[in-house]
Amino acid sequence: MALAAASLFGVWWDPAQPARAVAITYTLSVVYLGYALALLAIAYVRPPGETTAIVTHVGDIAFVSVLQYLTLGPSSPFFLYFIFSLFVATLRWDWTGTLVTAAVVLATYVLMTVSITRSLRPSEFEGYRFVIRCMYLVVVAGILVYLSRHHARLRTEIARLARWPQPTAVDIREAISQLLEHAAHIVNVGCVVAVWEVAEEPNTFVACWPDPGRRLTTYPPGTLEPPVSGDLDRATFVAVGPVGSTTTLLVSNDRGSVVPTEGRLRAELVELLAGDGLASAPFHTERVSGRIFFTSFTAPAVELVPLTEVVSREIGASLDRLFLAEQLKAVAALQERIRVARDLHDGVLQSLTGIRLEIGAVASSVAQIPSSRDRLVAVERALALEQRELRLFIEGLGPAAVSRRDRESLAGRLDDLRERIALEWKMPVTIRCTADELPDRVENDVLSMVHEAVVNALKHGHPSRVAVTLERHAEELRIVVADDGRGFPFRGHYDHRTLAAGVGPKSLLDRVSALGGVVSIESSDAGSRVEMVVDLSAGIRA
Length: 542
What we know:
Layout: H1 2-13, H2 22-45, H3 50-70, H4 80-116, H5 127-162, H6 172-187, E1 189-198, E2 204-209, E3 217-219, E4 237-242, E5 249-252, E6 258-261, H7 267-270, E7 276-284, E8 288-297, H8 304-365, H9 370-397, H10 410-425, E9 429-433, H11 440-461, E10 466-473, E11 476-483, E12 492-494, H12 496-503, H13 506-514, E13 518-524, E14 527-535
Parallel strand pairs: 9-10
Antiparallel strand pairs: 1-2, 1-8, 2-3, 4-5, 4-7, 5-6, 7-8, 10-11, 11-14, 12-13, 13-14
Helix pairs in contact: 1-2, 3-4, 4-5, 5-6, 6-8, 8-9, 9-10, 10-11, 11-13
């Protein structure tokens, strides 16, 4: 409407300017102004649909083409309408509409110029203006396409931020991996590294994507803390080129630009970063504080610094929620353990005590039969050992668990386990342990895993001997239970994935999987071999 009104005013002000067909030009300008006012009224009542937009767009280009043809074509003062049509196409159909409109307008302008120059005198044709206007169309179309693509990418990034995942995976490592993968797609990078600490936790946690071997790793205090020099603690920074300990970092300032800094990355951290380019921002929440690193850029965004800050804050908030959920689960588990401990103490433990007393009385009454008396004494001894182990288990379930100094070593507890099994099953069992002390919960689970694996072998394989080996290499614990019995119902080697499909012992698989470990079984007519491998550095333990 504004362009139509300005055109009509110009024709009225200087009617001699469109030297040809002044009356027709004046009439067309009046008609176009009325047409624009009608469209304004229609749009005010009801927004136009897609069909209306296409029809009006084609009508605009056709009207401008006729108007320019009547006013000296390549030198027409109404050329601005063509530029206007490009902006309209961009607003309506993004960059695809701009390209199509630019091609149609440029072809129309060139054909119109070729047609009209045949009827013009040489002095009337302004070749330089024709060339400049063609370039106007090309340059304006290129800029609008770029801005449209840029706008579309911003909309995509905002949509991805709005769809920030709420991890539902049971395994916290898998949940963190999902978060980092989503962040990588937003920032458009090939590698993400997160380093953080949790309140009241001494260790430093590191998660890398897409490296499956480093989805979540625990480092001792001081190993990676702080990840950057002190002057960069709360700063957002970027870098170009390959990442190294001597890489020049550019820090974002208050004016929105980046300037060089003397800050440096920790050498141990550089080993985790791969690829060209770097962007990093800190995050701080009530329970979690750390820093996110993006590397290996495929196409760095213009808004890289603010985008990195926003994504970093989202990651921090998500980690905070994950660790809060872990703490709530730990509290719920503690309450359940207290309830189970109370029930065991008041029920099973008291029943075992009564059974022991009854067996002792029977053993005294059959003193004249040595074999029967010895058998009963052995059963009473086995019950005493089970009671002792059950008491330790109950104490471990309570809120004030027995400290490591006040209990036996792992080797001693394994020897007690071997003695109990030998008394109960009248079967020789050898246990060789070269592992040093383990985390409390891992140690309790290991005892349960060994006990279950040995009892499974005795119950189903009917072997003449069972051998158990525990070895620790760095952060890997390997447990092997071998026997010379009849083996499992299946034959051959089965890995963890195959066993989890329902082939192997489910309870044992669940125990090992809960520790983030794997189980493999070798079964034959000559016996079986159960191997359990646990990564002691994986996962987060309450």
